[in-house]
Amino acid sequence: MRFKIAPNDIRWWFWLVTLLVIAAALAGWTAGYYLVISISLVHALFFIEESKSVTDFETQVRITYLALTLFGLIPGVRVVIYLALFIGTVMVTFFDHCLITRVLKRMPWNQGHAA
After folding, report:
1. Kindly report the CA angle at 32 between 99 and 44, in degrees rounded to 5?
2. How far is the first Cα of the chain from the last one, in angstroms, to the nearest whole number?
């Protein structure tokens, strides 16, 4: 696994900002959870606009991530969900590895079409 940053790519900045806000939320800034959701919504809308499709693979990844942030609104699972999102966001931001991508590639509707 190689360390990788891409400061010239807006996608990388979306992930980095999301990562920083998740860290702040987990550190006790409760409003950060709602900011993560907002950033994730903008990220998903950006990809929907860019691809002109909600079924585009990269858009599916962002929509799934958004859904997980919303699932994290449930108080009993919030910390667990956001810790998982934190770890996953570290991996995608700095190592270009994404568990959501790996799972979505295996979904029947993505067979032969995933990036």
Report:
1. 50
2. 19
Can you give the pTM of this predicted structure? Answer: 0.90
Q: What is the mean pLDDT of residues 20-49?
A: 96
Nearest one of 30, 29, 7, 3 to 92, comparing CA atoms: 3
Locate tokens 């709602």: which residue?
Answer: 34
Residue 16: what residue type?
L
Rounded CA-CA distance 83/95 in Å is: 17
CB 35 within 8 A of CB 91: no
Rounded Cα distance, 8 and 41, in Å: 22
Half-sphere exposure of 101 (CA within 13 A, CB side): 10
Domain positions in the chain: 10-110
